[in-house]
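Thread: quick sanity check before group meeting

JM: Hey all, I'm pulling together slides for Thursday and realized we never actually wrote out the predicted structure for the chain we discussed last week. Dropping the sequence here so it's in one place. If anyone has concerns about the input, flag it before I start.
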Amino acid sequence: MAGIRGLVKDTAIYGLSSIVGRFLNWCLVPLYTVLFTTSEYGVVTLVYSVVALALIILTYGMETGFFRFANHERWGDPMEVYSTGLVSLAVTSSVFLAVCLVFAGPISGLLHCSAHPSFTVMMVVAVAVDAFTALPFSYLRYRSRPVRFASLKLVNIGLNIGLNLFFLLLCPFLMDSVPGTVDWFYDPEFSIGYIFLSNMIASVVTLFMLVPELTGFRYRFNARLWREMLAYSAPLLVLGVAGIMNQTIDKIIFPSLVSDPAEAMSQLGIYGANYKIAIVMVMFTQAFRFAYEPFIFAKNKESGGRGVRAYSDAMKYFVVFSMVIFLVVMFYLDIVKHLISERYYSGLDVVPVIMMAEVFFGVFFNLSLWYKLTDRTIWGVWFSLLGLAVTLGLNALLVPVMGYMGCAWAAFCCYGVMMVSSYLIGRVKHPIPYELGRIGGYVVLALALYAVGCYLIDTQNQWLDMALRTPLLIIYIAVAVRMEGIPVPYLCRSGKKSNGKV
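JM (edit): ok, ran it. Output follows.
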């Protein structure tokens, strides 16, 4: 239980940067949907989908590889592991940057922004920097420094948001009132380019802020260690690419599945904006991942591979909190939907489907520990490739008929298949006694309450509807607290103990 308590505390702190940061970025969505057309926002959605894929390729599993080898008995000095990984990422990021700058024109065409190749240049720089800094952030997690980790992430996000507000709100105001102050650098026609410019500046500033994690030790490149890290991480690269493609390939291929290019980008913008509403589940999964990955390796080392109880509890609590988040968003969607402009409301039906898809993905991530701990990461590849096949097949089948709803249901089925497959194989390869009855009970209860709250309660008054749904949410939380016994009292005690000591 002590391990789970530490996991909860670290998840809360790491989640500060992930949840608060993404929430603040979330708050930019209304601005984007008001200022830009659905087609322009479609370009933003497409570019960031490609960026997510590029980041996975450029980090090629080095984060997980670092945790594995830094805790490996054969390698006594974690700093040698760290410096070897840093050198590797520095070289590959530099090569990527050089190649993309040479071919910026053709790449811009593929991203539907051929008139602005500078968009591509800015995002290439941001991606190269972010890929390199991924390992210093992993090092902070390894050293159990969640506060510095969260602080740096929040500064990065705050700067990005501040620059967005400066370029998209303040500069147009000054351009109208006192043009002489900004007309020497501000171009209204640059439009969504200022989103990418803000991202690039924030990434570069973060790199400089990470200098303490990049200095103060002797850089050593151990070729043998590097080869072993690559051998361990190579399946994770395929896993990561397949995994991120499961998240982004629908947005990347969507324009090619819709006959009218202009309509395709408009629909992609609507889908991307509503996907942002559902992303609160991604926030929680990401926060959990930051704490969970180092936790499982450290726990495995500490217990000699016998920490199965802790893994089972972690899965249970993940599902409980995930379903709370699902109910909160769905019960109060009439408030949450104001994150986007009314012209994007036609896509609200994707929200519950995508949120449940992300719950499946979070469970799949929890299940993935069996092949990571046993160095059989190739299984992660097979599961993700299976999911990718489902994603591609269902998108090709459903999008021409259902539009972006086809993307949502494809994601739901993809993660569902991956989750079930991983569980069934894991039962044979590395069985862990998950409390399936209790976990399933929490899911069924949440879905039943959702059905009652969103389909049976309909007074035609959104405020009354939300008021009537609130007791349903309280019922779910009360049942979970009663069944588990101690979460709320423990969390209160943890907060008192950690004040001023983090």
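AS: nice. Residues 2-498 form one domain. Residues 494-502 have pLDDT under 50 and may be disordered.
JM: adding both to the slides.
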